[in-house]
Amino acid sequence: MAENKENESSRRNFLRVGLGVGAAAVAGAMSTKLLAKDDKPETGKGEKVKVLTTDGKLIEIDAEQVGLARKKDIYISRDEARQGIPNRKFVMVIDLAKCKNARKCVEACQEGHKLPKEHEWMKVYMMQDSDDAAPYWFPKPCFHCDNPLCASVCPVGATYKRSDGIVLVDTERCIGCKFCMTGCPYSARVFHWKDPEVKAEPGSKYSPELNVPPREGTVSKCIFCPDKLRKGELPRCAEACPMGVIYFGDLIEDVVTNGVETVRFSDLIRDRAGYRHLESLGTQPSVYYLPPVARLFPVDRGYDGLKPNIKERFKDVPYVISKEKKQ
Amino acid sequence: MSSYTTEGLLTEFAPQLARPSKNWITWFVFFLLLFVFGMYGLYTQLTKGHIVTGMRDNVVWGIYIVNFIFFMGVSYAGALLSGVLHLFKTSWRKPIIRMTELITMVSLIIGPVFILFCIGRFERLPYLIIFPRIQSPIVWDVIAISTDLVGCFIFIYLSFLEDMAHLRDNAEALNLSPWRRKLYKYLAIGYTATPIQKKLLYFSRNVMAAMIIAIAIIVYSVLAWIFGVTLQPGWHSTIFGPYFVIAAVYSGTGVLLVLMWVFRRIYHLENYIKKQHFVNVGVLLFIIGAFYGYFTFSDYLTKWYGSARMDKLLIDKLFRNYYWLFIFSNYVGVLLPMIIIAFRRLRTINNISFGALITILALWVNRYLIVVPTLETPYLPIQDTRLDWVRYSGTWVEWSLTFAGIAVFCLLFMIISKLVPIIAVSEMVESDEYVVEDDVESLLS
Asked: Which residue of A90, A96, A154, A235 shows the fewest CB atoms closer than 10 Å?
């Protein structure tokens, strides 16, 4: 057991460093850019660390570089935000067997992106595929499809697919035609129907990677928190989930983590029969689901304690109808 | 040969162009008030945001888009009809072809404006030209509609040209006011019906007539593909292009019949627009209605019979929440006009016009049933407690702008009918046997 834990923690460190390297590479690119501008001397002093690269080589780099990449917020301009983080292909795995609808992901997301309360980038559905099928909780972010209809139909290139798989919206470009919203088959997008009344922090500049503040008359959606990814951290929803439902990682490194355990993505998908929602539509989502088998909690655990206004959302689910009838 | 003369017709139609009557002014003020109310609605939307409309995150397109499709459809129908009537030299077209052309122009001015109401960031509209992505069907539509605008205006201007010249030449006899004389002289751009001018005009009108038929079909298909290319249940249909075109012609023919009825009444054109015209256009309505009914049936039958999950949800919704609207638009709207025209005893001018009015309403509802229920039926169920988020209903702002659109349609018709005779004089006097003796190229050289 103890060995197991140790094993896990070393794996976690491995992944952290792994993500760190990627981020460091970006930061490196960034800092050379900055250097060119600021003429700042190279930070080539002090501690070196050994890190493992994606192709399995052990290399030594500046410790500060990793630290810099991890901790500091880097401003990513609108143009840079179109490029994507190099050598990354982000992927999310949501373990439906663990979800008990704690809604911490929703709250963390709204908090982090300064969303008005009526807007949820992350939504938690109670799904029941047919009357006799078992209900289950279904957290749904944007799927960051590899064949994104939203980006295809956008007339001005306000929403776009990046090299790292992330689909972003530039709300300074968006004209608000809402064609992407009709294009998306997963209802992932929200529209700001009125002034969200969120002010930008003084001095901060708009970046599609954070998408704060939300703007009236434009579309927004889950963005996989690239601002956190650049620091080698998990997206806000994955970080906030108390049950470790949401795994996030990199398809190229073939590794995902929920912050507690780190696993090989392909193993996880193979062993747990991972699938993508509505695969038949051909949108090629970057979000995978693990089926709700051998569940940690009965579905009621996520329902009974809910606030009435949230509870009411699920009134049309067959399971809830029969449950309310019994009472 | 035609038995009408230019001078005779102009003298007869002169009262139409004279000072507006009391009735005319009353209606004008009425429509103006509707328009002003719509502008107040627009002001509300601009100041308070789109939250004042009934649109929410699921139903992101509402009455505005319905109106857009509707007016564009009426416009394409006008273009298609006037193109066909012109090219085939149908002799009964003469008294009604100007109305058809005006329908094209007037609704083409109104239609695209409704898109602007629907767009979240008005002021970023130039981005469509600065940062266009040709992959997007909206950009196809921008290109298509602007092509259509240019094409239709050229076609209509050419068909007005001879009458402008006639009005300029007969200004004395008609006792026209100085500003009108200036206007007609300006618009007639020196046309004096020399043989070369005549032949050039004849040739270019034929070319434009053929072109706007093609443009109308392509442009309206592009509009249909905005819906067709998405994966939404009910929209993702290969039949949508032709279906939209047929539906457009059906509603446009209805508008034509109603306008014929209105103008015949207010300008006493009983000698020109006769029952035969109503019957002829009615037969056209019958044929197109049959096609429309067939397309509708075909589309829904295949969806219903196969019963894919989303199609079933959509059709259940149509028959549960939209039952009467569905019955009205797809049964009454098809069968009633057809029955009226099919039976000789029912085939009166008033009945045909009534049937046409039902057609127009039914087709508006048809577009509503295409846009809204589909958006209320997303792949992931709508789990929301906010009623307006679950079901769409238009607010007063959207309705005020809708009525403003109709008001502008009427206002423009009222104004234009004061500037040119609503019956094309040049068409009436034109001989049916007119042929081009020389080819135009030799004339140009």
From this structure: A96
